[in-house]
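re: ur question from yesterday

yeah so i grabbed the chain u mentioned. its 268 aa long if i counted rite. heres the sequnce exactly as i have it in my notes:
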Amino acid sequence: MLRIIGGISLLLLVGSATAPEPTLRFNRYFVAAESYESVGVFDVDKNDTLDIVSGDFWYEGPRFRNRHLIGNEPRKDQYYDDFSTIPLDVNGDGRMDFVTGGWFDQTLRWVENPAKKDSQWPLHEIGKVGNVETTRAWDVDGDGTIDIVPNNPNHPLKYIKLVSPGVFKTVTVAPTQGHGLGFGDINGDGRGDLIVSDGWLEAPENRESGPWTLHKEFAFGTASVPIIVTDVNGDRLNDLIVGQGIVMDCTGTNKLATPADNAAGQST
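ran it thru and got these structure tokens back, copy pasting raw so excuse formatting
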């Protein structure tokens, strides 16, 4: 009996000595006063340190105190027409470039990382795609290389594939799209499907020849970019995490704020 009690006492002492789980904490770190529409994080100067790229500048990591000019992005009303910063070595020179697009000029373009640190970055047009709310980088065709998927409300849904250095190919998936875009395997066939505001598009075996079948199993209205595809409850079925941005107009009606809305005088 004494041996049992002693054993229990030892276990209690060990348990009480176990340190509590540390609390995860984040600290705000000031980088710059200028503010643009998007930001990317990648190694600009190939020194194995992540840098920050945003708008007209890139900031050297790890302290981000040295600022370098990229270019001079024109301002459109209260926006800079630069709605994504997707890292991608477009020309195959071993330096990371990035892909962006504009709402106002409706153009997808790539910005070339020059060899010299303080040189401006040349702009290259990929194509006219429609108003670019933002873009996302997903491996849509499963070949191991990211594709560029712009969210263009009221324009065809497409992905843009890098087929050789500096050369892109556009693959149309659906005749139109709304506000909201996601990517992930919905039906468990191992292929990534595209999620739009009014349903999900089932990926065919051959992504380029199609067809992509639209399943209208939900209607999100003005949805987020991205719509996140993940198994939330652990049942081995992917779920969707969807956000919705709203703006109050003068009638008190909630609706999504687009750059065009704000240019017309609505407030966010």
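noticed a couple things. The chain has two helices and 22 strands. also Residues 44 and 96 are 6 Å apart (CA to CA).
anyway ttyl
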